[in-house]
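S.,

Sequence below, as promised.
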Amino acid sequence: MSGHSKWATIKHKKGAADKARGKLFAKLIRQVEVAAREGGGDPDSNPTLRTMFQKAREASVPLDTIERAIKRGTGELEGVRYEQVNYEGYAPSGVAVIVECLTDNRNRTGADIRSTFSKNGGSMAEPGAVSWQFERKGVILVPSSVSDDEIMLVALEAGADDIAAAGDQWQITTPPSAMPAVRTALEEAGIAVESAEVTLLASSTVALDNESDAKKVLHLVDLLEDHDDVQNVYANFDIPDSVLELVGG
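The prediction came back faster than expected:
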């Protein structure tokens, strides 16, 4: 598992996700709206919307709030029109970073992201400068208490690419389009799914072996994630557990 995934897990366990629930709701609702606009309002025929709908429900976003977001996306209700824009850059220590945004003002968002990079030891990069180091994949996490044989039997048959140990979980990697089917197959087999999302995985990582470097990179990532228009931040750092415990302690 990448260092970024481990850091996200620590923040979740420490309750940071609950403190930011309002901001999380806003980001998920925006994702639902854009998915509905781009692929239609029926989750059965729009797999992206189905995934966003499920994520919103798992985060306890009220059903009527999700339904209004879908209607705004399809044009049944009036709303702000968001566009997707990605930014690429480098954090301290040469860590590659991709920032995915949904914004109603590209100029404002771009200026904010550039400022966040430059004020925190990083720098923006040209489009394509770092994205070649990442590949879009579906990632599903299930408890390690389930046997690997059982997971392999179900997940691989449903279209998964790989299964690997990730701390106290199994990490199942899939092609993006296969992620919903693999998740459904696991759940129908009685295997608990702890998380499932389409994400970017780095093909290589930058090791951050000391507390100072790790803190600088994680501080920048946290600031980027805190921006209202930012939906996801991906980075190719890897932090040893011993260092991560110091930073998160």
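The mean pLDDT is 87.

Coffee later?
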